Amino acid sequence: MTPPRPSPRALFIVLEGIDGSGTTTQLELLAGHLRARGRQVLPTREPSGGPIGKLLRGILLGQHDTVGARPVDGRVMALLFAADRRDHLAREIEPALAAGDDVVSDRYVLSSLAYQAVEADRPWVERLADGIRTPDLTILLDVPIAVAADRRQRAGRPTERYDADGTQERVRENYRRLASEPARWGKVTTLDASGTVQEVHAAIAVEIDRLMDREGPIS
Ligand code: TYD
Asked: Smallest Cα–Cα separation from 32: which of 134, 102, 108, 111?
């Protein structure tokens, strides 16, 4: 009798990029690619669907701003994103990985290091992430500011807290710097995301197939 095939290790894969880089569109296609290879997948995102994530979405849209009052402080944003991430890990990501499912997330810790470093001290933002799970692979979808802004406009997306071109420029620089640093937050691969949806998906699929071939089945 042939022994049962050992199941592969569950993978944690993250898509990152500036607003309008295509992470949300590409996440669904990536999940489909993994499923087509016979894997169980949990697609997810940050801010998460949990209580802190919901609060964050309201703040991002300016729903809590009142005339004459200051916007929510950048350090408070960093604390909320860090708290949402731990909530997301504890209630969604870790249980799915433990059950053997791959987890693909639209944004994770690099978002905090790229965005909150614009409005708070980066070493402090990094400390908030101490000890959290490192992704198996983070794919950075890199795209020029103007291309991303045009995509957001065409999609009719409401204006959010970090949408100003100057902010997006700094966030993009932060991402590119993070991708070139030693892999403290796991392996980061940068892809040119200015092509069509299918072109970018094909480039992501190549990286994912490479990752799966490297992993192989657990013996
Ligand atoms: P986005 O991912 O574009 O979602 P939606 O499609 O709902 O607008 O928006 C999330 C915003 O939150 C985006 O501007 C990036 C920002 N963000 C941070 O600043 N820090 C973080 O840690 C995360 C996860 C997101």
From this structure: 102
Residue with tokens 């993250």: 14
Q: Within a 10 A sphere around the Cβ of 109, how many other Cβ atoms?
A: 27
Pocket of ligand 1 (CB under 6 A): 19, 24, 46-47, 60, 81, 107, 111-112, 115-116, 160, 162
Q: Whose CA is nearest to atom 10 of ligand 1?
A: 47
Topology (CATH) of 12-214:
Rossmann fold (3.40.50)
Distance CA 140, CA 137 (A): 10
pLDDT, tens digit, 9 for 90 and up, residues 78-103 = 999 999 999 999 999 999 999 999 99
pLDDT for 219 beyond 60 = no
Taking CA atoms only, the protein residue closest to ligand 1 atom 1 is 19
